[in-house]
Amino acid sequence: MSAVADTHAQDDHHHGPAKGITRWLLTTNHKDIGSMYLIFSFTMFLLGGAMAMVIRAELFQPGLQIVEPEFFNQMTTMHGLIMVFGAVMPAFVGLANWMIPLMVGAPDMALPRMNNWSFWLLPCAFLILVSTLFMQGGAPNFGWTFYAPLSTTYGPPSTTFFIFAVHIMGVSSIMGAINVIATILNMRAPGMTLMKMPLFVWTWLITAFLLIAVMPVLAGVVTMMLMDINFGTSFFDASGGGDPVLFQHVFWFFGHPEVYIMILPAFGAVSHIIPAFSRKPLFGYASMVYAVGAIALLSFVVWAHHMFTVGIPIAGQLFFMYATMLIAVPTGVKVFNWVATMFRGSLTFEAPMLFAVAFVILFTIGGFSGLMLAIAPADFQYHDTYFVVAHFHYVLVPGAIFGIFASAYFWLPKWTGHMYDETLAKTHFWLSFVGMNLAFFPMHFLGLAGMPRRIPDYALQFADFNMVSSIGAFMFGATQILFLVIVVKCVRGGEKAAANPWDGAEGLEWTVPSPAPYHTFSTPPEVK
Amino acid sequence: MRVHAKRAGVLLGGLMTPALSMADWTLNMSPGVTGTSNEIFSLHMTILWICVVIGVVVFGVMFWSIFAHRKSSGRKPANFHENTLVEILWTIIPLVILVVMAIPATATLVDMYDTSEADVDIKVTGYQWRWKYDYIDDDFGYFSNISTSDDEIYNRTAKSENYLLDVDNPMVVPVGAKIRLLLTANDVIHSWWVPEFGVKKDAIPGFVNEAWTRVDEPGIYRGQCTELCGVKHGFMPVVVKAVPQDEYDTWVAEQKEAAQRERELTEKDWTLEELMVRGEKAYASACASCHQADGSGAPPAFPALKGSQIALEDMDAHLDVVVNGVSGTAMQAFGDQLSEVDLAAVITYERNAWGNDTGEMITPKEVFEYKNQE
To answer: In CATH, which superfamily holds the domain spanning A22-510?
Structure first.
């Protein structure tokens, strides 16, 4: 093995990337595929963001000004679907592709051809999904949670295409997850035991298991919809003996682990970034691993907290309330550990650290509102109001999205070989931070004052905070163009990055040169 | 942050629109007017303060590190990275706080689920996009539609004080009585919510959910549908009028009498003109939200009736569609929703309005016979 690797090292120039479009179409290289995932995800982020701008523009003032309610509903639906399945999940898969082999000292992902396929399925799926906007009857308009029977008996004709797109996304995610698991379990460098694995690898391993567990459930629920719509079954149609609540149980059995799928990899990345810029080892590595495991396990037994108002029996109500409150314990442990890592460190605040610290603070605020939502009686007031919208945007925007930005700035020097423009990056951070809080904090007040979610128009007492929220949203949206500028600038040039550009960063990925060569770790490194 | 938000909002609000002068800066949940809503409010405040205290402690330590432990101030990093005792402590303490929190939450929940011994039973049915209230003890019921005009919604006239929160026929309840609500839906899932009662429950086709409330202060209370139910989800408000018991009794007597009069109308001999007048009203309330006031519909989900085959050709087919609905589509079965008179009026209206000049009419008696022959 090592003899073969040595020969390869000598004629590296034979194994550079192919030329032209085939490099990207046919590539099996984890770095190329990782880059494609990240570019795709950012494209989707801008598209989903543009839809959010339409939503906020309509909600800028009471009354209907810009779009009709029908199109408004299509925007809320597509915004949610695109952000969840198109922006956040592919971004994490992109990070996994780039970083997991580098972090565990593997030459590539375990299943490189499947890797190529799982990426290329995604643009196909989203082409189908986005094309529904141009179909007769319009795009899906029933919310990203697509509750039956609104999405079945009463759905637009394009629903079948939406189902097909979800199936393809599911296939892509499952293959991506299998690849991650196979890589982590089989291709770690000698000496890297499970409890020596970097936390990003750990969180992705657990995320991948969650994906494999729940994506088939999503496939199941959309298949039942497909049958109801096209083949005369009545899974969710009460008049045919079906059960609309069954839909919600199945959907949220997928949906709740799904929200952890969107946050756990960010937990992992932040657990590298905070120690690096605190110049101090992560506090409580083992408890971090156990906490992620506990969160993942609990995520399977809390789904009905999304359904406190559907009329489940009181015993069920109590069980799901207690189980949901329990999640606060491991999540709290993680937050305490991050704070303890910073405590008595030697802190600097480059862009990755700014995003990571904001992640901890704002995610914790989202966690607090999550705890409030877990209290079932209080949830009767919060449920389906803007309080919920505020809650999940607080966990997803400064959670998932800031986690992705932090990771991108942290690893950009490794990917491109150049340092990004720190001043621009800090500007990106502060504008995002202010814009995001301006957009989403007032939503707490709106929800508590009684504004339901998913409405294109609202009563007059909600006018002021909606306007503030829209201004914040426009600010946050416009700021993201800056990120594109920073990345393009960094790819094209800039200060040369050292193999390890950060004082306190540790891990195998920093032992290879920057930019990381097309092939790395052809000979596995030794981990002590 | 909020100060900035406020300034920006006030500045822009002042510039943008006079409608905003009615808005307010409410920050918190309202304690409401029922025992349940007050209990929820106190749970909400308790958990909020617990979160605030935890937040102050955690963020306090964090900000202390951010300000005091900077590299620029020459700090050398410590090297500790593990402490089992601390880990156990910050697992146990939150657990204890949660248990403390769970006790009052459980008590409130048990109370909310106790729908026994109600004084008044009202069946609440969600339709796209209106509510129907059936007073099942007294054998009458009616629809409650939004009464905000399109002119207000499309900014052609000034918005009224209760913009989007006004209905033609509010639910009426007596104060001091335990009201049991039986919630269901006719088409998709809706959710009935009055924030000041602390009652929110989904109305689901094929299910009957229960909730209860006891309102002690007379007044008008407003809420909205809170489950996305289609294009007009934002336009199906809930309005409840709580009145003293004697006023309520008078109202019930009137409603019962009116219901009786309605039933007698079936026997009356109707003329085309009378049916057209009644049909226009019934159409506006039952049909116009999908098929539009001018019969143009909103294809493909909601076909046009103006010039349509169904309204111009075979009468029996038309009657069948209206009474039994069309399965697998959004067209509901109106046979049980509307009285015979309204069914006859709507069908007659559809066959003679907007240039559909068939000159044909159907009488309530014929509708009655059709429904009972099946």
So the answer is: Cytochrome c oxidase-like, subunit I domain (1.20.210.10)
